[in-house]
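Quick one, tokens below:
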């Protein structure tokens, strides 16, 4: 029954139309197609209510539509004489503070208007000037940052930037100073480039006026299309909206409805796309003649490779690329196995998360993340082990910070005081290289303190009794002298993790790149089993995969002991399945891992290598890689840039970047997502899958594929966990494998009822000191290596973008006490020596590291970070021990020639 106001219980009269009162009045207006301006509202952040532009008359009262529940009122009017007068007044007040010329200067783009055109709204309200005293900022403008421009003449004090910075990124860069009409946005005293901004762009996305803008956008022509694709930097796998004008990328935004990143990005995914049109791009094949790499035709280059690989069949190897698509990785391993008669194929998972796969496989039967990134929001405790998440996986790092701000407990295991460690409830700051000791101690404390989920242990695991006996002597007290972590802190962390309702783990390369890396991961699995934290929402063991498609490269079989979908070549039935599809025999015995490829080359057993998109001379232990590549008869490198590895090749093939081809990537939560071509490759460069098809055809194995979707169809025939994957089904947000049938929805959580092993098996792991510690005499510091926010791995893409302005060199983080002993000041050039080699960097004094430890990134080839690394490998997975190297440091004095790594 209608009441006097036109509404009634459960209904709302909205400008005379009856609607369901769901959400806020603003939601109801938008559902009803009523365009109500709201400058301080954005669905990415919480309710605002600051700008008052969305005021409406609700049952006769003025209320802000964006913060008022629709069900609280019966009649809402959005356009009345009183509202019109009010809006005109509001608009004039805004114009007294903001410059009409600056408002909305950067608003709008093809198909996806980003900024509400505030200036247009004000015109619609009839505001072409102001009756109020003009009180503009006087034009505080900032052009110090390579990616962001600030023009406070256009600021309307809506606070969206501040809220996005805090509520999405958790960074707290902005503040408002002053009161009333003197209120101003600020980021501190100095230039914006020196603020705490991490250039995620969240503020730019929500700014309704363009007061904070992307340089990309200001410089851009209007885009003529938007292509949705997946980021090619880290394994988070953020969705990208790539704005393209002609054949150039103009700017990149996060895909708002992608469940991985929900519109958020980091400084790499959002801004570091300039590499695609960098003049250093390889644009034509190169063939070595008379000792020099010279331009050649595709026919000549392919012929040269086919002749040599054909002659050396069985003594060749391939290193595939985690930067390339699933389809391309599938082709590389198919070429080696079915075409070259060898399982000698590996990928960079070997040098990052192979220990995760090996460790988790031993305990659970599957070596991949058990849960989804969305589970971070559901966890009530997050254990962050060996990952500097806010720098290495920034969008996940921001999500963890938000979870902590909402009240989730945070326990961090890391030798460095990372950003997350700084806000954690407990930071277990262990001595580098003591993971196994610490995790045994934590498990021991869980058992002793009685925080074990005995139902889960009884029903879903094996070996608990023996494990509990093993742990009895490995208490926090017994190990604290070696780990450096006070026993009571370990016990506190154990109690918190064991008694949380939904404890979730994430871990990174700080766990894996050790002599006992795989075993350390097995101990993380043990913790989850003790807590019963598997097979349900908000929990799990979740490796943060390094490269964008390292999960996919491993899934596709780019490893010497497992084929596509983790098929064991030693299993007759598995081999037959592949042989039927590939119509070729496949060898039975496994091939060589990367470190063993180098060894086989030195021994003369391996003659030729094909390396796809990997600068191993910089990213692998350099001394071993140099020896291995130097011993080969023939090296082929398929690349975007003339990397140091490419410079050593006999043939160089110019490939395409992720912006220039179609395919799929699989992120760290097993989500297979589409990669879509946005622009053409430069010059004669070609999509890598096409080059691989040409190579396979030239070596006697023609492939029928006309598009990567057809390659995915074949992948589904050999890999049961991909059987239900098609490009159509990957729309709009991908699928998480396993997807065993065409109607299977994908698998967000593994092991919900059982493990592939039936029951998960507790692992008793005895600590064994790394052999690298035998070299510590005369090298008083333990060096940890890793990534920084602005760069990615060997840096061949990020160094060719303005990110290099944000971080122009590799820095050595060193404790002030150690720096003083070595005679180093902040910013000094520093020479770092290990028993295995030497590097040169810039000293940065920092208490993020403890005395006796240091940290160095490896993004600049001139630094030579991986020349320092030893040849020690993880005992189960052959991953190099990047995380512990004994070093000593000294000022790198002298000429630039003596210190070639210095900027
Ligand atoms: Fe790309 Fe990773 Fe940054 Fe996301 S977090 S934008 S995937 S680099």
């Amino acid at each position: 029954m209608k009441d006097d106001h036109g509404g009634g219980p459960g209904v709302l009269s909205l400008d005379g139309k009856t609607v369901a009162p769901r959400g806020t009045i603003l939601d109801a207006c938008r559902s009803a197609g009523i365009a109500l301006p709201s400058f301080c509202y954005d669905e990415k952040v919480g309710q605002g209510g600051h700008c008052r532009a969305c005021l409406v008359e609700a049952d006769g009262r003025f209320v802000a539509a964006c913060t008022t529940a629709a069900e609280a009122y019966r009649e809402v009017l959005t356009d009345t004489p009183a509202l019109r007068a009010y809006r005109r007044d509001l608009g004039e007040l805004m114009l007294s503070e903001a410059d009409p010329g600056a408002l909305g200067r950067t608003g709008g783009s093809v198909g996806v208007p980003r900024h509400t055109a505030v200036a247009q709204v004000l015109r619609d309200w009839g505001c072409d000037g102001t009756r109020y005293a003009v009180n503009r900022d006087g034009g505080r403008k900032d052009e110090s940052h390579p990616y962001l421009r600030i023009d406070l003449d256009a600021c309307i004090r809506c606070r969206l930037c501040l809220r996005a910075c805090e509520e999405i990124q958790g960074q707290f860069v902005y503040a408002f100073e002053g009161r009333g009409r003197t209120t101003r946005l600020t980021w501190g005293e100095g230039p914006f480039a020196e603020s705490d901004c991490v250039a995620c762009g969240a503020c730019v996305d929500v700014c309704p006026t363009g007061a904070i803008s992307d340089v990309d956008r200001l410089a851009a022509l209007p885009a003529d299309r938007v292509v949705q694709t997946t980021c090619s930097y880290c394994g988070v796998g953020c969705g990208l909206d790539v704005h393209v004008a002609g054949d150039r990328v103009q700017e990149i935004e996060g895909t708002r409805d992608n469940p991985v990143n929900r519109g958020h990005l980091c400084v790499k995914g959002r801004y570091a796309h300039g590499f695609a049109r960098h003049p250093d791009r390889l644009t034509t094949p190169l063939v070595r003649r008379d000792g020099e790499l010279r331009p050649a035709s595709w026919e000549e280059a392919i012929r040269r490779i086919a002749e040599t690989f054909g002659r050396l069949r069985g003594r060749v190897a391939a290193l595939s690329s985690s930067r390339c698509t699933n389809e391309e990785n599938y082709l590389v391993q198919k070429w080696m196995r079915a075409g070259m008669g060898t399982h000698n194929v590996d990928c960079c998972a070997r040098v990052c998360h192979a220990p995760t796969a090996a460790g988790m496989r031993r305990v659970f039967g599957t070596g991949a993340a058990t849960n989804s990134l969305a589970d971070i929001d559901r966890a009530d405790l997050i254990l962050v082990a060996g990952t500097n998440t806010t720098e290495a996986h920034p969008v996940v790092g921001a999500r963890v910070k938000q979870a902590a701000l909402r009240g989730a407990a945070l326990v961090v295991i890391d030798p460095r005081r990372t950003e997350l460690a700084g806000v954690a409830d407990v930071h277990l700051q262990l001595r580098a290289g003591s993971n196994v000791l610490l995790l045994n101690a934590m498990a021991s404390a869980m058992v002793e303190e009685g925080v074990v989920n005995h139902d889960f242990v009884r029903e879903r695991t094996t070996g608990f009794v023996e494990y509990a006996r093993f742990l009895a002597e490995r208490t926090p007290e017994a190990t604290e002298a070696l780990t450096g972590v006070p026993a009571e802190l370990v016990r506190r962390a154990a109690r918190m993790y064991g008694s949380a309702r939904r404890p979730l783990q994430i871990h990174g390369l700080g766990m894996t790149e050790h002599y006992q890396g795989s075993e350390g991961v097995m101990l993380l699995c043990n913790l989850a089993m003790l807590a019963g934290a598997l097979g349900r929402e908000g929990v799990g063991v979740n490796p943060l995969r390094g490269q964008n498609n390292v999960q996919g490269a491993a899934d596709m079989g780019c490893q010497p002991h497992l084929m596509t979908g983790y098929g064991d070549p030693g299993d007759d039935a598995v081999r037959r399945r592949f042989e039927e599809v590939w119509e070729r025999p496949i060898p039975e015995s496994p091939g060589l891992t990367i470190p063993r490829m180098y060894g086989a080359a030195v021994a003369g057993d391996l003659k030729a290598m094909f390396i796809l998109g990997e600068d191993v001379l910089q990213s692998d232990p350099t001394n071993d890689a140099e020896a291995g590549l130097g011993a080969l008869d023939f090296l082929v490198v398929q690349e975007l840039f003339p990397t140091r590895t490419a410079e050593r090749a006999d043939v160089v093939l110019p490939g395409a970047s992720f912006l220039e081809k179609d395919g799929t990537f699989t992120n760290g939560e097993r989500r297979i997502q589409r990669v879509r071509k946005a622009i053409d490759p430069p010059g004669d460069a070609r999509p890598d899958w096409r080059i691989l098809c040409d190579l396979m055809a030239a070596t006697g194995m023609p492939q029928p594929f006309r598009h990567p979707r057809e390659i995915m169809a074949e992948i589904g025939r050999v890999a049961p966990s991909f059987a239900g994957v098609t490009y159509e089904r990957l729309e709009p947000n991908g699928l998480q494998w396993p997807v065993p049938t065409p109607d299977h929805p994908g698998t967000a959580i593994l092991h919900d009822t059982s493990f592939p092993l039936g029951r998960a098996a507790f692992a008793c792991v005895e600590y064994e000191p790394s052999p690298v510690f035998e070299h510590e005499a005369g090298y008083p510091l333990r060096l940890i290596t890793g990534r920084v926010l602005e760069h990615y791995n060997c840096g061949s893409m990020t160094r060719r973008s303005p990110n290099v302005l944000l971080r122009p060199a590799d820095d050595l983080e060193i404790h002030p006490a150690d720096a003083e002993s070595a005679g180093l000041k902040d910013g000094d050039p520093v020479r770092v020596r290990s028993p295995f080699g030497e590097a040169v960097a810039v000293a940065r004094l920092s208490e993020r590291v403890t005395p006796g430890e240091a940290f160095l990134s490896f993004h600049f080839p001139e630094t030579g970070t991986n020349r320092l690394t030893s040849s020690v490998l993880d005992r189960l997975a052959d991953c190099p021990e990047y995380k512990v190297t004994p070093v000593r440091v000294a000022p790198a004095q002298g000429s630039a020639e003596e210190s070639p790594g210095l900027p």
